[in-house]
Amino acid sequence: MGLRVRLRSSYPVASLPPQARAVAVALQHYGMILADNGSPWYISGVPDARWSNDDLHALGRITGADLEVVGPTR
Questions:
Q1: What is the per-residue DSSP string for 29-55?
Q2: How far apart are the two ends of the chain, measured CA to CA in Å?
Q3: Cα–Cα distance between 74 and 56 in angstroms, integer?
């Protein structure tokens, strides 16, 4: 269930705080699975005290227009 997408290489990751930038760079390189569960888009993960929620909230700046669909690989 879901669509494989990645963050466009043209997205200005340098404008993000350090921890959000690390996630955004990973989204550019590895992508993610976008699942439609009926709620607005958001990025979720496992809570960890080493991450700054303030930094990570900056990922909310990423919109659907910033993503590109990645086709299946063989």
A1: HT-EEE---SS---------TTS-HHH
A2: 18
A3: 33
Q: What is the pLDDT of residue 36?
A: 74
1-31 CB burial, b ≥16 within 10 A, e <16: eeeebbbeeebebeebeebbbebbeebbeeb
Helix, coil or strand: residue 5: strand
In degrees and rounded to multiples of 5, residue 65 shows phi and psi of -70, -20
Interval 56-60 mean pLDDT? 92
Q: How many residues does the chain have?
A: 74
SS3 71: coil
This prediction has a pTM of 0.85
